[in-house]
Structure to design on (506 residues):
C-alpha cells in the first residue's frame, strides 16, 4: 500500500476541531431548517484524518456513534490504530486507504469531515473528495470541507513562494529546518523596512514561529497547495450534487459584521455571490464550508426562533465584577483568550450562568428564566423583560463562537472527587503528548506539571497525596519544592480545570 513520505517523516499534529463536532454541525443546521442526525448516534467519516486526533475523541465521548477515518500516510494510520487498540474503541476504525480508493463497502454517513485536506491534495483527489460527499451523505447529512481561499490566500502565497525557492529538495525534516533558517535571514531585514509588505511578512513569520512545525511544513512546503475562490469551490461542489448550507464560522456570512460598509453587500440576493464578494472585501484566506445534498430543503437565512429549541454552553471567564444593573460594556474571555464585549445586563447574566455551568449547558428556557431572575435580583429590573434582545445577543455570540449551541446534554459537575480518576483517553493522550481532548471537543494544552498530574489520576490518590507525588517529580527534575502550600493549591486548581474539561470520571 502506498504512503505519503512527507507525513511519515513529519507527522501532522492532529487535534480535536470543535467546528467539526456533529453536535455543533447539527445545531447550526437546525438554524437553517435542516434536521441532521444526533451526535450521540450518528455515523461519521473523516477523510485525511491523520492520527485520529479529531475523530477518536468523538468515538470515545459518544460511544453510540460510529466513526471511520480514511488516511493514506502509514505512520498516521499506525498512530490512530494504536490509540484505538489502547482504548478498546469498538466504534472507531481508521483505514489505510487513499481518498481515491473505492469506499462502497462503507455505506452512508451523517457527517463527512475533511479539514485541512482539500487544498493540499491533487485535483483528482479533490474531485473524488467532493464526489464521496455527494454520494455517501445520508439524507439530511452534512459535509464539512475546509480549504485555502482566493484571492486572500495570495498574501500567504508570497511567503510560500520564498520558502519553496529557498528550501532544497531533501527530506521533509531537512526542508523544514531550512525554512526556519530563511525566517532568521528575513526577519532582521524586514524589521529594517517600514513598507506595509514588510510588516505583513514579519507578522506572517511571527505567526509561523508560533505554529506547530508540522503545520508550517504541510501548509507552506507541501508540493500541492491549491487555494481556490469560494464560488469556484461551490461550482465544483454543485457538480458533485452538493449545496451550500452555511459557513462553520457563522459571523463571516453576514455583511453587517463590516459595519456601515456592509450595506453595499446587503443588496446582493444570491448567497454565493454575496459571500464571494465578502471574501474580496475581507481578503479571506481560509474557509470551513458546510455542504448538504441538493435534495435537502433549507432556509436561506437563519431562523432566530429556532434558538428557543436549542441549549447552550460557553467556556468563558471574566476578571471584571459584572454590573447587572446597567448597560455598560464588560469583557468575557474564552479559554483560548478571545475577548467578548457584552453590554446588555440580560446577556451578561446569561454569560455568567453559562460560564458557571460549563461544560454542561442551559436550554433557552433555563437561560432566559435564570438570567431574568439574576438581573432582577441585582438591580437591573428595567432590563429584565427583553427576551428578543437576549436572543439577538445570543445569536451574535454563537456567530462569533463565544457561545456554542448544542443538542447534546452533559451532566453538571460541582464536587471534586476525593480520589480523582482521569478517563483513559485523557491519560493515553497525556502519555503521548501535551494535548488532550475535552468533553466539548476542544484541545486542552498541558504544561509539564499538568501532564504529570494527569498521568497520576488513576483514582487511588487524594489531592494531598497527589501534591506529594508532584513534589517528588519536581524534585527529581531538579526544581525547588519547599513551598508545599503553593504546590497543593496549584494541584487543586488543575484538578478543577480537568473536571471542567470533562477529563475526570465521577
Ligand atoms: C494537513 S493534514 C490534515 C489532517 C487532519 N485532517 C487535521 O486537520 O488535523 C492532511 C492529511 O490528509 C492526508 N492525505 C493526503 N492525501 C490523502 C489521500 N489521497 N488519501 C487519504 N489521506 C490523504 C495526509 O496524510 C494528512 O494526514
Amino acid at each position: 500500500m502506498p504512503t505519503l513520505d512527507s507525513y511519515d517523516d513529519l507527522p501532522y499534529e492532529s487535534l480535536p476541531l470543535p467546528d467539526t463536532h456533529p453536535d455543533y454541525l447539527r445545531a447550526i443546521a437546525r438554524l437553517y431548517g435542516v434536521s441532521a442526525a444526533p451526535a450521540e448516534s450518528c455515523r461519521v467519516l473523516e477523510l485525511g484524518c491523520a492520527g485520529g486526533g479529531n475523530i477518536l475523541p468523538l468515538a470515545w465521548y459518544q460511544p453510540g456513534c460510529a466513526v471511520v477515518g480514511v488516511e493514506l500516510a502509514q505512520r498516521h494510520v499506525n498512530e490512530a490504530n494504536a490509540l484505538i487498540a489502547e482504548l478498546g474503541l469498538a466504534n472507531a476504525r481508521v483505514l489505510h486507504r487513499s481518498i481515491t480508493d473505492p469506499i462502497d463497502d462503507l455505506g452512508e454517513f451523517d457527517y463527512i469531515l475533511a479539514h485541512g485536506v482539500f487544498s493540499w491534495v491533487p485535483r483528482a483527489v479533490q474531485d473524488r473528495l467532493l464526489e464521496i460527499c455527494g454520494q455517501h451523505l445520508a439524507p439530511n447529512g452534512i459535509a464539512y470541507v475546509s480549504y485555502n481561499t482566493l484571492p486572500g490566500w495570495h498574501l500567504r502565497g508570497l511567503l510560500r513562494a520564498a520558502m519553496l525557492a529557498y528550501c532544497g529538495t531533501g527530506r521533509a525534516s531537512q526542508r523544514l529546518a531550512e525554512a526556519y533558517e530563511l525566517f532568521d535571514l528575513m526577519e532582521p531585514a524586514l524589521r529594517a523596512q517600514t513598507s506595509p509588505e514588510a510588516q505583513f511578512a514579519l507578522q506572517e513569520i511571527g505567526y509561523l514561529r508560533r505554529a506547530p512545525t508540522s503545520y508550517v511544513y504541510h501548509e507552506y512546503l507541501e508540493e500541492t497547495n491549491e487555494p481556490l475562490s469560494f464560488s469556484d469551490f461551490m461550482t465544483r461542489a454543485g457538480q458533485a450534487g452538493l449545496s451550500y448550507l452555511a459557513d462553520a464560522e457563522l459571523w463571516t456570512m453576514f455583511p453587517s459584521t463590516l459595519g456601515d460598509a456592509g450595506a453595499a453587500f446587503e443588496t446582493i440576493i444570491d448567497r454565493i455571490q454575496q459571500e464571494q464578494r465578502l471574501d474580496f472585501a475581507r481578503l479571506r484566506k481560509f474557509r470551513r464550508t458546510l455542504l448538504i445534498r441538493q435534495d435537502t430543503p433549507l432556509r436561506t437565512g437563519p431562523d432566530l426562533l429556532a434558538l428557543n429549541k436549542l441549549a447552550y454552553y460557553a467556556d468563558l471567564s471574566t476578571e471584571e465584577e459584572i454590573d447587572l444593573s446597567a448597560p455598560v460594556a464588560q469583557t468575557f474571555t474564552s479559554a483560548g483568550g478571545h475577548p467578548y464585549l457584552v453590554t446588555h445586563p440580560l446577556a451578561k447574566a446569561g454569560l455568567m450562568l453559562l460560564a458557571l455551568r460549563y461544560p454542561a449547558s442551559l436550554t433557552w428556557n433555563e437561560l432566559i428564566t435564570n438570567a431574568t431572575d439574576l438581573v432582577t435580583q441585582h438591580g437591573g429590573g428595567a432590563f429584565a423583560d427583553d427576551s428578543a434582545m437576549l436572543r439577538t445577543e445570543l445569536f451574535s455570540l454563537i456567530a462569533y463562537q463565544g457561545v456554542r449551541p448544542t443538542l447534546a446534554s452533559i451532566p453538571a459537575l460541582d464536587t471534586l472527587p476525593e480520589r480523582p480518576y482521569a478517563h483513559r483517553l485523557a491519560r493515553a493522550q497525556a502519555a503521548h503528548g501535551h494535548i488532550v481532548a475535552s468533553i466539548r471537543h476542544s484541545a486542552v494544552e498541558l504544561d509539564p506539571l499538568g501532564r504529570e498530574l494527569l498521568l497520576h489520576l488513576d483514582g487511588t490518590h487524594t489531592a494531598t497525596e497527589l501534591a506529594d507525588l508532584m513534589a517528588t517529580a519536581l524534585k527529581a527534575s531538579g526544581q525547588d519544592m519547599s513551598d508545599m502550600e503553593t504546590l497543593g493549591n496549584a494541584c487543586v486548581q488543575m484538578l478543577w480545570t480537568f473536571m471542567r474539561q470533562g477529563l475526570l470520571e465521577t
Observations:
- Residues 4, 7, 12, 14, 48-50, 70-73, 76, 98-100, 115-117, 120-121, 125, 218 surround S-adenosylmethionine (CB under 6 Å).
- The chain is about 45% helix and 15% strand.
